[in-house]
Specification:
Helix content is 3%, strand content 37%. The protein has 299 residues and is mainly β. The protein has a domain of 122 residues. The strands form six sheets. Strands 12, 14, 15, 16, 18, 22 and 23 form a seven-stranded antiparallel beta sheet that branches. A five-stranded antiparallel beta sheet has the order 3-8-5-6-7, with no helix packed on it. Strands 1-2-9-4 form a four-stranded mixed beta sheet, with no helix packed on it. Strand 6 and strand 7 form a beta hairpin. It is globular and about 55 Å long.
C-alpha cells in the first residue's frame, strides 16, 4: 500500500506535492493568519476535526456577548440569511453555524474585533482533495461566495471560467466601460478594507490578482448563468482535462446572496459582512474616468 502523502501548506507559499505513485490519501497541515476586522477565507483541506467550532476554537477570542466576541459567518442559501458562530466565555460556542461541518467550496467571513489581538492563527491538520477536476455546478446571476478549494494557487486563465460562460469586458477598465457590464471576481483586502477585482478582457484576465489563492474566499459577481463544470486541480491545469459533470448526474445549483439580509444570530447586532459596492468615477465628484475601486460596504 502506498504511503500517505504529507502536504505542508502556508499562506505565503502554498504547495501541492505529488508522490511518484498514486497515494491512497493526501494529508497535510495549514496555517492561516487572521487580521483585525473582516477576513474572507476558505480552507484547502478537510480538517480532522471539521466542525466550525473545532476549526476556530483555539484561534478566535470569545466574549460575554456576541457583539464582543470574534465571529464566523456564512451565507445559508436555504434560509436566505447569514448564519453565525461565536464563542461565549461562559457557555462555549453559540450560533447555528457552530455545529456545521466546514466545506472547502464555501467562503467564510471571520470577524476579529478591533480590541482583540491584531493577528490570530488558525492551524489545521487534515486531508487534501485529490480530484483531477471538480464540477462546481450552475451559478445563477447575482453574487456568490466561494472557496478556492485546492492546496495550491490556480491561475484564473486555467480555472474554466471562460468556458463556463463568464461575461468578458469590452475594455481595460470594465467598471466605466458602459453596458453590458462584465462579470467580476472579487477578493477582500482585510488590511485596506476593500475588495480587489479581476475581470476577463477578451481572452486575458486583468485586474489586481490573477489566480485563486490557497486559503482565500472569493465573491462572484455574475450577470448571466455560469455553468462551471470543470475546475481543474492546479498541477493538472492546462492539460486536456475532463469535465466533472457526469451524464445524468444531479448537479448543484447555486442561488445568489441577498444583500438585504436579516439580523445575524439572536442579537440585533446590525453587523453584517462587507459586501461590494461599485463606484463609477465618472459619476463621482472629481472623477476622471480613469480609475475605479470596488469598495467594501460594512453593514
Amino acid at each position: 500500500m502506498p504511503a500517505a502523502l504529507l502536504v505542508c501548506l502556508a499562506v505565503t507559499e502554498p504547495l501541492f506535492a505529488q508522490a511518484e505513485s498514486t497515494p491512497t490519501s493526501a494529508v497535510g497541515f495549514y496555517r492561516l493568519m487572521l487580521r483585525q476586522g473582516w477576513n474572507l477565507i476558505s480552507l484547502p483541506l478537510v480538517p480532522d476535526h471539521p466542525l466550525v467550532s473545532e476549526v476556530f476554537d483555539e484561534a478566535l477570542t470569545g466574549g460575554g456577548r456576541e457583539r464582543s466576541a470574534d465571529r464566523v459567518l456564512a451565507w445559508d442559501p436555504d434560509l436566505e440569511e447569514w448564519i453565525v458562530a461565536w464563542k461565549s466565555t461562559e457557555v462555549g460556542w453559540q450560533g447555528p453555524l457552530a455545529a456545521d461541518t466546514v466545506r472547502l467550496d464555501v467562503a467564510y467571513w471571520v470577524q476579529i474585533r478591533d480590541d482583540h489581538p491584531d493577528s490570530q492563527e488558525v492551524l489545521l491538520y487534515g486531508t487534501v482533495r485529490e480530484d483531477s477536476t471538480l464540477d462546481r455546478g450552475v451559478f445563477e446571476p447575482g453574487e456568490h461566495l466561494i472557496g478556492s478549494i485546492w492546496a495550491a494557487s490556480l491561475p484564473l486563465e486555467s480555472a474554466g471560467l471562460a468556458e463556463a460562460g463568464w461575461r468578458a469586458s469590452s475594455g481595460l477598465v470594465p467598471l466605466i466601460s458602459g453596458d453590458p457590464q462584465p462579470d467580476l471576481l472579487l477578493a477582500y483586502d482585510a488590511e485596506r478594507g476593500w475588495f480587489r477585482a479581476a475581470w476577463l478582457d477578451g481572452e486575458a484576465w486583468r485586474g489586481e490578482f490573477d489566480a485563486f489563492q490557497t486559503g482565500a474566499g472569493y465573491l462572484l459577481w455574475l450577470h448571466d448563468t455560469l455553468d462551471w463544470a470543470d475546475y481543474p486541480r492546479p498541477d493538472l491545469a492546462g492539460g486536456a482535462g475532463s469535465a466533472a459533470a457526469a451524464a445524468g448526474a444531479k448537479r448543484p445549483v447555486h442561488h445568489p446572496v441577498r444583500l438585504a439580509a436579516p439580523s445575524i444570530g439572536e442579537e440585533e447586532t446590525g453587523e453584517f459582512p462587507p459586501m461590494p459596492r461599485v463606484r463609477n468615477p465618472r459619476s463621482s465628484p472629481g472623477g476622471n474616468g480613469e480609475s475605479r475601486r470596488v469598495q467594501g460596504n460594512p453593514r
